[in-house]
């Protein structure tokens, strides 16, 4: 096969990184996770494209799925279904969907120059003729990291505290709904920091616009809606919060 033909048939770097196990650095991934909660700006200042983060967070989602399934699923098959939905749909599926939307919208609305290339190499922030570009791999990287507070507040803490926050008390509703506010607000903050770190994007502050809307909805929900009992992750898998008698 001619060399030029082989070059055109190469697997895009974005997919090669997903299965390059020898390059994984789980110590760095743990450092990223810790700082995403306490100092998220440092993460996007130093590190891009560490696939170990994706695998580690997928493992956490798997463990969360097993825990929710054991607690609320009626049988083993339902537990396995919850686990698969948590990892493949809630985590990877939603992250891919968000990354795709951000790739097309951010590059077009916030970019100062033309974006190009879905699957450029990790360090390729400059395209032909010196143009700075937004790569899909980076968008996926940001979406994956933004999911961490969602997992922390809604898949871990909510599971541990659900017996308390699911009670029919206003204080329980306050605490449960506040966790949703924090999780979603943190999601948009990390998304903003990820794209704000790119010097060729402008007006990235618009990515924080949903937060005031979330605050307004949170205030309204304190008197009208219980997020914990109506939006818990396991409910999106077709399982009730209480096991059938």
What is the number of strand segments?
0
* Average pLDDT score: 81
What class, by secondary structure content?
A: mainly alpha
Radius of gyration: 20 Å
- In the predicted model, the low-confidence regions spanning at least 5 consecutive residues are 3-11, 120-130
Question: How far apart are the first and last residues' alpha carbons, in Å?
Answer: 65 Å
H and E order: HHHHHHHHHH
Specify the overall morphology.
globular
Percent strand: under 5%
What's the tally of helices? 10
Oligomer: single chain
Helix content: 55-70%
Major sheet summary line: none
Transmembrane segments: 47-70, 82-106, 146-166, 178-195, 207-225
Subcellular location: Membrane
Membrane topology: Multi-pass membrane protein
GO cellular component, one term: Golgi membrane
